[in-house]
């Protein structure tokens, strides 16, 4: 019983990091109303930025947040402004332009292959990592310290994004644009600037997730694909556009991946995740925690 409880706790910790990785995806969908297929690649780029920042500067992995997050915000802001905004302008009468999905898929392949070309296929891990293998012993439980930090970062980031959207003028403008782009424009809100900001914030949250992952996860050009699939499942489970739902959806996935292998083959754990994904799509397409006008 103790082993199951320990696995459950570690599943919650890892699941919160999954939710943090998915937070940017659900934020971008909530505002732009399109699925960003390049989100996993943006997470991969964030991990490389975090890796090289820590390696070259010698900073503590979590101190690197002050460098990684602004870099990824700027990267996401201008990616939206240069690559995606022209499509919205060309299809301004279309609520959810399908062309954006095609373009983000192209960005996904370009980023992955460009990274492969520049850095090669090697798996990279942090050298002189003060957090490698570090465990916290609480009674009979052994908990991963990097994952504990990741849990704290996930909760704080989710809360910060939620409060930003609810309590600031810019956040209200983002919510207004997500609900009705035309009405927001009539009120003087520059919808395209809001899209840039939302994409930048979504990419910055991927930067936070990357910093929490790098201390215990390998960095390689296709690492984003592994998390991309989980992020899409989490967004559907938690609710499309639901900020809190992303964190809760991630925890659900983490619990299944952690506890199910205790009773069955690990491959069946993946089957349960995909089965739950399909069930939610059939029964509650808005997601477990998604509601109309969730923001």
Notes on the protein architecture:
With 295 residues, the chain is an all-alpha fold. It has one domain (2-223). Helices cover 72% and strands 3% of the residues. The protein is built from eleven helices and two strands. The chain has helices spanning 2-32, 39-57, 65-90, 99-119, 145-167, 169-179, 181-186, 191-213, 223-238, 243-259, 266-283; strands spanning 135-138, 141-144. It has a two-stranded antiparallel ribbon with strand order 1-2. The longest helix is centred in the N-terminal third of the chain and has 31 residues, at 2-32. The model has no long low-confidence stretch (mean pLDDT 88).
Summarize the structure.
With 295 residues, the chain is mainly alpha-helical. The protein has helices at residues 2-32, 39-57, 65-90, 99-119, 145-167, 169-179, 181-186, 191-213, 223-238, 243-259, 266-283, and strands spanning 135-138, 141-144. The protein contains eleven helices and two strands.
Number of structural units classed as domains: 1
User: What is the approximate shape?
Assistant: globular
The total count of helices amounts to 11
Helix fraction, binned, reads over 70%
How many β strands by DSSP? 2
Strand order of the largest sheet: 1-2
Radius of gyration over C-alpha positions, nearest whole angstrom: 19 Å
Structural class: mainly alpha
**Average pLDDT figure:** 88
Q: Main sheet, how many strands, which sense, barrel?
A: 2 strands, antiparallel
| Strand composition percent | under 5%
């Amino acid at each position: 019983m103790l082993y199951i409880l320990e696995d459950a706790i570690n599943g919650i910790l890892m699941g919160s990091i999954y939710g943090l990785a998915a937070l940017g995806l659900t934020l971008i969908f909530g505002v732009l109303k399109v699925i960003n297929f390049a989100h996993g690649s943006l997470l991969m780029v964030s991990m490389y930025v975090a890796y090289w920042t820590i390696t070259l500067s010698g900073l503590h992995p979590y101190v690197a947040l002050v460098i990684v997050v602004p870099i990824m915000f700027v990267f996401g802001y201008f990616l939206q402004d240069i690559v995606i905004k022209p499509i919205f302008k060309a299809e301004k009468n279309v609520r959810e332009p399908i062309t954006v999905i095609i373009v983000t898929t192209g960005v996904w392949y370009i980023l992955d292959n460009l990274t492969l070309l520049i850095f090669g296929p090697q798996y990279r891990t942090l050298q002189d990592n003060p957090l490698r293998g570090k465990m916290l012993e609480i009674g009979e439980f052994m908990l991963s310290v990097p994952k504990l930090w990741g849990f704290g970062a996930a909760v704080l980031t989710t809360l910060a994004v939620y409060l930003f959207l609810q309590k600031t003028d810019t956040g209200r403008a983002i919510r207004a644009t997500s609900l009705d782009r035309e009405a927001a424009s009539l009120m003087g809100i520059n919808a395209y600037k809001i899209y840039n900001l939302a994409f930048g914030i979504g990419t910055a949250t991927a930067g936070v997730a990357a910093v929490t992952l790098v201390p215990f996860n390998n960095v390689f050009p296709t690492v984003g694909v592994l998390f991309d699939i989980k992020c899409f499942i989490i967004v559907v489970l938690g609710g499309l556009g639901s900020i809190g739902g992303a964190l809760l959806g991630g925890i659900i996935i983490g619990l299944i991946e952690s506890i199910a292998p205790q009773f069955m083959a690990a491959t069946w754990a993946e089957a349960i995740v995909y089965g739950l994904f399909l069930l939610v799509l059939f029964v509650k397409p808005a997601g477990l925690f998604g509601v109309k006008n969730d923001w």
